Amino acid sequence: MKISTAFAATIAAVTLLTAAGCSSDIPQTNPSASKGAGTGEQSKFFVQADYDREIALRKVTPTGPSDKPWEQALDPKLVDTAKYKKAGPYHLCFSNAGVGNPWRQVGFKNMQAEVALHPEIKTFTVADAESKDDKQISDITDLLGKGCDALIVSPNTTATLTPAVEQACAKVPVIVFDRGVNTQCAVTFINPIGGYAFGADGAEFLTQKMKSGGKVLALRILPGVDVLETRWAAAKVIFDKSGVDVAGVEFTDGDPAKTKSIVTNYIQRFGNIDAIWMDAGATAVAAAEAFEDAGKPIPPINGEDQQDFLKMWQDKKLTAIAPTYPTFQWRTPVIAALRILGGQQVASPWKLPQPTITDANLSQYVQPNMPPLHYAMCGCTMLPGYPANWGGKS
Amino acid sequence: MSATETGNAVPVRSEARRGLTGIGPILVILAVFLAAIAVRQPEFYDPPSLLAFLKRAAPLVILAAGQYFVIVAGDFDLSVGSLVTAEVVIAARLIDGDPALTWPVIAVMAGFGLMVGLVNGLITTMLRVPSFITTLGMYLILVGAVYTWTGGSPRGALSEEFRMLGRRGIEGVPYLQQLPYAVLVLAGVAVFAITLMRADFGKVLLAIGDNPRAAALSGARVARARTVAFVLSGLFAAIAAVLLGGFGGVSFQVGAGLEFTAITAVMLGGVVLGGGAGSVTGAMLGALTLEILFTLLNLLGVSGALKSAVQGLIIIAAVAVGNIRRRS
């Protein structure tokens, strides 16, 4: 009895409050008058020289076949590999940090398909470290005992894996890609331009599309990861310079529901938000949906090359841009390994281009037959097993 | 017959307890927060924005109701967060964008929730494993199983029809504009939970949480009632998963930490840890209050990172205050 009375009272109270809130004609304080939180301190990962180099690299024309960006290189410095020359067939080994997110899953599929293209690779041995440093260290030791002709490493973390990579360098030619290590002993290190360029591409686009003083909300996955810190560091530099008002910088943990709640809260708090900057595209759709559900137009936003975002961009005609951290880079280490074992020169470091998807080239990357979390910049459409092996429908 | 016995035996005690752990305090706290929001952001009370808030709060309120059944009988359910994640990931994989599979998959999700709850309940009651351990184990099992099954990242896609339940509502309702389906689901679950607690089942559950031995001696089927509590928690987690998956889409993080948020909500609602006292209405109001608090913190510009610290303070304070009040 008591419970139901109290419950009814609550309902009544809420209803009253609702009615009261609705019938009031008092002019409300203008929420958009409040000032944003700003961009805060610069990340301790920020290195001005690296930033300048990456910003400049975006304008460099890559050398190599233009229809195969995974074979292209920016400002390549070639190194001699004659001492590694060896007759086939080869035993290629790969120590993988993990396949714990869709980006790594697509990438690993690319690599497997690239291996399948080369009959001279007789055996391809893979060890999955499941995102654990200690497992990757022992994986590398194990692989060295298996007679690999060359070792590809995608390190889980930079500093911790350095000694393991150095140990491997003494025995076989090593190719490192994606995240780096603190040693020059590998024959080459392959990665795209980098996080500063990614962050800057999105931030520059947004500042152009917003009016001065407009409010931008920056959404980051989590702090402390170098590849993500550099993205935000570059965006911060550009936002600070441009005079836009950064309403807030929030961490989403990559969780769409959390992202949507955060964006909804900001829309409520500030009346509206004029742009969304993201350090990774996985929750871009959720952020955009928050505006839809609030009955507001979706503001300029940057995502990434995942299909769910590209499809929404096309369907809803968003003002958007998608910087990429291309998964086609997973093909390059296999190509590099074969060139090294063939005694051909390779670029070291091997800087890959980092294409950006804009309105102009959007249609060529929207692939309705592919799953929503598939990364379009995979360079995989001509590979054997596409699209089925990537989860697509033919 | 046993029902009449417990029906007579329990209310004397629970009536006395209710005075100590009723929903009065939580209503006061809720009113304070509501007033604070009214000052800071009057437009929060526009019907559409209020309903949008209820839509977002619905999954947590439902989870808190499910957690209440388990806690009031003296147990814990730590598996609900990972169960929500598992349900959403399974749904995406099975539906894979096909609208025709929406309802069959929702049925599968409900079945999976019931099954996980049943296993939790049977292991706790039959094998006498403390529920803390049972559900912690289930939490780890579900995390590992989902990771293995998906290879580390969710595949497939939820259909628009599936997502409607958590995202959209009945359009064109006069005065409200849109009545979210999630709010309707929440109302249904609330009525169901309150009815259950007012029926004999609820009285038996309270008696068990208060003193399982006395309840057993007075004829209550203790093991069965505790198992049913776990089954309800599993089912409610499945319903929350449907709404959360609809609201935010597929992700691996969707259920992360929800078990602790739900337990916090239940504690905040005046439900005594260890069972035997507190109402399901209080638990649900606790969840609502927690969501209001999070909204308020955001309006005040407090960083989202403080959320878990606030939750921790609430859990400790709620239990401490409850103990002091019971002793006096």
TrEMBL record, chain A:
<keyword id="KW-0732">Signal</keyword>
<protein>
    <recommendedName>
        <fullName>Periplasmic binding protein domain-containing protein</fullName>
    </recommendedName>
</protein>
<dbReference type="InterPro" id="IPR025997">
    <property type="entry name" value="SBP_2_dom"/>
</dbReference>
<dbReference type="GO" id="GO:0030313">
    <property type="term" value="C:cell envelope"/>
</dbReference>
<dbReference type="Pfam" id="PF13407">
    <property type="entry name" value="Peripla_BP_4"/>
</dbReference>
<dbReference type="GO" id="GO:0030246">
    <property type="term" value="F:carbohydrate binding"/>
</dbReference>
<dbReference type="InterPro" id="IPR028082">
    <property type="entry name" value="Peripla_BP_I"/>
</dbReference>
<comment type="similarity">
    <text>Belongs to the bacterial solute-binding protein 2 family.</text>
</comment>
<feature type="domain" description="Periplasmic binding protein">
    <location>
        <begin position="94"/>
        <end position="344"/>
    </location>
</feature>
<feature type="signal peptide">
    <location>
        <begin position="1"/>
        <end position="19"/>
    </location>
</feature>
From TrEMBL, chain B:
<feature type="transmembrane region" description="Helical">
    <location>
        <begin position="100"/>
        <end position="122"/>
    </location>
</feature>
<dbReference type="Pfam" id="PF02653">
    <property type="entry name" value="BPD_transp_2"/>
</dbReference>
<dbReference type="GO" id="GO:0005886">
    <property type="term" value="C:plasma membrane"/>
</dbReference>
<feature type="transmembrane region" description="Helical">
    <location>
        <begin position="60"/>
        <end position="80"/>
    </location>
</feature>
<keyword id="KW-0997">Cell inner membrane</keyword>
<keyword id="KW-1003">Cell membrane</keyword>
<feature type="transmembrane region" description="Helical">
    <location>
        <begin position="20"/>
        <end position="39"/>
    </location>
</feature>
<feature type="transmembrane region" description="Helical">
    <location>
        <begin position="179"/>
        <end position="197"/>
    </location>
</feature>
<keyword id="KW-0813">Transport</keyword>
<feature type="transmembrane region" description="Helical">
    <location>
        <begin position="129"/>
        <end position="149"/>
    </location>
</feature>
<feature type="transmembrane region" description="Helical">
    <location>
        <begin position="228"/>
        <end position="248"/>
    </location>
</feature>
<keyword id="KW-0812">Transmembrane</keyword>
<protein>
    <recommendedName>
        <fullName>Autoinducer 2 import system permease protein LsrD</fullName>
    </recommendedName>
</protein>
<dbReference type="GO" id="GO:0022857">
    <property type="term" value="F:transmembrane transporter activity"/>
</dbReference>
<feature type="transmembrane region" description="Helical">
    <location>
        <begin position="306"/>
        <end position="324"/>
    </location>
</feature>
<keyword id="KW-0472">Membrane</keyword>
<keyword id="KW-1133">Transmembrane helix</keyword>
<dbReference type="InterPro" id="IPR001851">
    <property type="entry name" value="ABC_transp_permease"/>
</dbReference>
